[in-house]
Every structure is written in structure tokens, then in C-alpha cells.
Amino acid sequence: MEKRTELYRGKAKSVYTTDDPDRLILLFRNDTSAFDGKKIEQLERKGMVNNRFNAFIMQKLQDSGIPTQFDKLLSDTECLVKKLDMVPVECVVRNYAAGSLVKRLGIEEGKELLPPTFELFLKDDAKGDPFINESHVVTFGWATAEQLQRMRELTLQVNDVLKQLFDDAGLLLVDFKLEFGLFKGDVVLGDEFSPDGCRLWDKETRKKMDKDRFRQGLGGVIEAYEEVAQRLGVPLS
């Protein structure tokens, strides 16, 4: 597989074209950002940890029948993925109250949400990824009603699989965001799943083991990511 030109450079990943028009290479960088890019740092080993973490999670999801963009690892920081026509909508599941939900609704942090909530946000950094509803998605043509329903179904399936996976590792899957795209007409899970895009707490202590350590200046960000990976059995070398 020949790596060619940089197609897109995000806050923490770069996307490259290949000699196969249906495949891309994702490069996980050490860049770490928060608050829509207002806080940025380089964290040693982060690209490697997130790349291998994502590969492990995507394989678990594929084994459970969930279609994903992921094809295979190429190196410590790169993986091969299908080229998707991305839907500009983030699907968010919350199992426990945290983050923006607490701020918006005044819910106590850590409150278990039964059933879990399902929310939608427009993926637009310039607008601050605004909160949207299903009607917006269909009306403005970001996805069809059928595609949106499939995205919701897959998101809740992912939650069922990963809640159990993290529970077995002594962790609470507090919340997470997913992105989807179309591959040959089918809705497929895209982007990544790593501690950058979810909240994970230790079941016993409620210690934060995710990107909130960076957002809140708690320190030990990569050490927490590596501990989560170790508990799950993610091979980091």
C-alpha cells in the first residue's frame, strides 16, 4: 500500500490518500487539544497508544457484527481504513452524567442515566459543534432518516459491547462520541475510538482515566491511557 498525499489534517490525526482509491491511511499524532483547539500540547507516546487502542476496539466491534472503517494496523502510529463519505454529525451516548450535560441541565456529575441518553451534535469546530436534533439532520440533508436510524442502532450496539468490555476491566464507560460515514452505500462506523473521544472512570474510585485529565489539568494523561489499555489487554508493543 503506497502512502501518498495528505488529504486532511485534524487536531490529532492526519489522513493520507493511497494508491487504492477506496483506502486511506490514518496517522495518529502526539498532538493533544481541548476547548476547540484553544489548549494544545504534545504528549509523548500518545499517537502510538491511541492507534493501537483504536485498532483493538474496532476489532472487538467488528467481531460483534458492527461494520467499521478499520482495516489493519500498518505501524505504531498508522492504520489502513476504508475511505468513507463522512456524515457531519457526532452521535453521543451518555451512561453517566458528565461534561456538557451537567452544564446544560444541572444534573449531578456521576448520576447513572437509565436508559442512556442519545444525542446529536453537528461536527463543526467553527460553530463549537452545536447540539442538534434528528429533524435538523434530515431537513438540512446531513443524512437521510434511514441512515440516521441506522447510526442510532449502531451507536447503541457499540454501547452494549463496550460497556461490558470496560466493566470487565474495572472501568465505567461514562460517555462517548461516534462518527459514521457511507461506504458503497452502507452506514459504517468511522473515525476512531480512544480515550480522546470518551470518558472512562475507575469503577471503585471514580478516578478519571480519559482526556478530562488534560482538559482539567490533572496530569498523568498518557499514563492513564496506558493503564486503560493494559487493563483491556491492548498490545502496546
TrEMBL record:
Enzyme Commission no: 6.3.2.6
Pathway(s): Purine metabolism; IMP biosynthesis via de novo pathway; 5-amino-1-(5-phospho-D-ribosyl)imidazole-4-carboxamide from 5-amino-1-(5-phospho-D-ribosyl)imidazole-4-carboxylate: step 1/2
Catalyzed reactions per annotation: 5-amino-1-(5-phospho-D-ribosyl)imidazole-4-carboxylate + L-aspartate + ATP = (2S)-2-[5-amino-1-(5-phospho-beta-D-ribosyl)imidazole-4-carboxamido]succinate + ADP + phosphate + 2 H(+)
This protein's UniProt keywords: ATP-binding, Ligase, Nucleotide-binding, Purine biosynthesis
Domain annotation SAICAR synthetase/ADE2 N-terminal: ranges: 7-231
Superkingdom classification of source: Bacteria
GO terms classed as biological process: 'de novo' IMP biosynthetic process; cobalamin biosynthetic process
InterPro entries, sorted: SAICAR_synt/ADE2_N, SAICAR_synt_PurC, SAICAR_synth, SAICAR_synthetase, SAICAR_synthetase_CS
Keyword Iron-sulfur: no
Family: Belongs to the SAICAR synthetase family.
PANTHER family for this protein: MULTIFUNCTIONAL PROTEIN ADE2 (PTHR43599), SI:DKEY-6E2.2 (PTHR43599:SF3)
Name recorded for this polypeptide: Phosphoribosylaminoimidazole-succinocarboxamide synthase
Taxonomic placement: Bacteria, Pseudomonadati, Pseudomonadota, Gammaproteobacteria, Pseudomonadales
Gene: purC
